[in-house]
Design goal:
Length: about 450
């Protein structure tokens, strides 16, 4: 249990640091680049990330799960590592062929070909990042300190070299460069734990599992990554800038909880491998409690103080990001619940097929809603698409888990108590807005909410 707490501490430290780094660089970049160039960079970044989904095809999840299952056997670790790496290389080569074809054929891509050529480095080098090896081995200390060092250098470089709107290509290149450096360091360090077995590189037995989880990631991205790419194609770079600003806090909060689920995945995989259902349900109950405890204050305060948050993050030029942000924030509770059910329930139990089914439901709905809404409602439409899809997918997860009786879900009592405990956040937020003005109202509300959160922390997780 101590190692689990230490792992959560390391991952929490990394996530908190990334959170701070994001809030240090984001206001600077949005102001320096402006809505149009900031939107263009995000369009390119999300397009590259969308293709990257085809290259990785669920490898991170499979790698973590399979390495965790054999982490006490050095020979098996090398065999599994080589097979998973080979599968990743297989999908990456196919993806690169399609990617380079698109950037020379699609006019919007070819117009900014320099960005997309730079972005190809991310697809190529991600193969060798092998972060899943260290996660499966629960080597979170290494992950944390390596990431912090590289991110610190990145922040310094951004402030030193990115000075005007014309530096958007340089900014994008610096972002991609972090992936390249991470990959080189990781693959070099991985040789301490594994030996690449060349004949196993041709062993593609993980392709079927990768396809399932990969399709899940690709279809899920229809209302996350693809949203931004479609918005850019239909409505232009400025609307992407507004939407990317609105979704920034949402994605930071999502990554905050993803850090927790990434720590729990190898532990839950080991627990389920030993058929210890009591321990599995205990971890799940604590995770659900944590979701309700943390999600409600973030959602409530973000909705109330969206104008102040947008102003702090990006400035007056992004006022059109306020409504999309308010629409997006309730999706936070839904996506956190989905993460617990998927990464602590379905995946450790090897029930990948339910992720596969949910992917088609959510992805199909996203495509339909994007076509109907985004052209007319622009950034607001993209926000509605994400919220709606998260609601449908989370509902599907809950229905399946209840019908199949795979594990315990949150009780009505837990949900009811969480709602009651969230009421003071509404009082604090609205009271601050009525009694104070602007930034001061936000600061006072944040301080009072923090005090109340600490007061309820132990009682809520008892």
């Amino acid at each position: 249990m101590n190692s689990l707490r230490l792992n959560i501490l390391y991952k929490g430290l990394l996530t908190f640091a990334n959170y701070i780094i994001g809030f240090v660089t984001f206001p600077y970049i949005t102001r320096v680049l402006g809505p149009a160039n900031f939107g263009l960079v995000n369009f390119a970044q999300n397009t590259v990330d969308y293709f990257l989904l085809f290259a990785t095809m669920g490898i991170a999840t499979i790698g973590t799960r399979e390495i965790a299952a054999v982490r006490n056997n050095q020979t098996e670790i090398s065999k599994q590592f080589s097979s998973i790496l080979g599968t990743n290389l297989f999908f990456t080569i196919i993806c690169l062929i399609i990617y380079f074809g698109c950037i020379f054929i699609v006019p919007k891509f070819h117009q900014h070909i320099e960005l997309f050529l730079i972005g190809s480095a991310k697809i190529i080098f991600t193969v060798f990042t092998v972060e899943w090896l260290f996660t499966g081995l629960e080597n979170f200390r290494y992950i944390t300190f390596r990431s912090l060092a590289i991110r610190t250098i990145y922040v310094i470089a951004v402030f030193v070299f990115v000075k005007s709107p014309s530096d958007y290509i340089l900014y994008f290149a610096l972002t991609i460069f972090t992936v390249v450096v991470n990959s080189i360091i990781n693959f070099t360090y991985s040789r301490k734990f594994i030996k690449v077995i060349w004949k196993n590189l041709k062993d593609l037995r993980f392709v079927k599992h990768s396809l399932r989880l990969g399709v899940y990631a690709i279809m899920t991205s229809m209302y996350i990554t693809f949203n931004v790419m479609y918005l850019g194609l239909v409505c232009g770079d400025v609307q992407v800038g507004y939407y990317s600003t609105a979704v920034k806090l949402y994605f930071i909060a999502v990554s905050l909880f993803s850090a927790f689920t990434s720590v729990m995945l190898p532990r839950m995989s080991a627990v389920n491998a030993n058929n210890d259902s009591d321990a599995a349900n205990k971890y799940l109950r604590k995770s659900f409690q944590l979701v309700f405890l943390v999600a409600f204050p973030i959602i409530i305060l973000a909705i109330i103080f969206a104008p102040q948050i947008i102003d702090i993050m990006s400035g007056k030029g992004y006022i059109d990001s306020v409504l999309p942000m308010r629409i997006l924030m309730p999706a936070l509770l839904l996506v956190w619940l989905s993460q617990v059910i998927a990464f602590q329930g379905f995946i450790p139990l090897k029930k990948d097929k339910y992720l596969f089914y949910s992917a088609f439901i959510g992805g199909g709905l996203a495509i339909t809603l994007n076509i109907i809404m985004t052209g007319k409602l622009q950034a607001i439409g993209s926000a509605i698409v994400l919220l709606t899809c998260e609601f449908v997918v989370t509902s599907f997860y809950i229905i399946i888990a209840r019908r199949k009786k795979l594990f315990l879900l949150p009780s009505l009592k837990m949900i009811g108590l969480s709602v009651i405990r969230a009421i003071p956040y509404i009082v604090i937020g609205l009271g601050s807005v009525l009694l104070l003005n602007g930034l001061m109202a936000f600061i006072i509300a944040a301080i009072l909410s923090g005090i109340y959160f600490i007061f309820t922390w132990r009682r809520s997780l008892s």
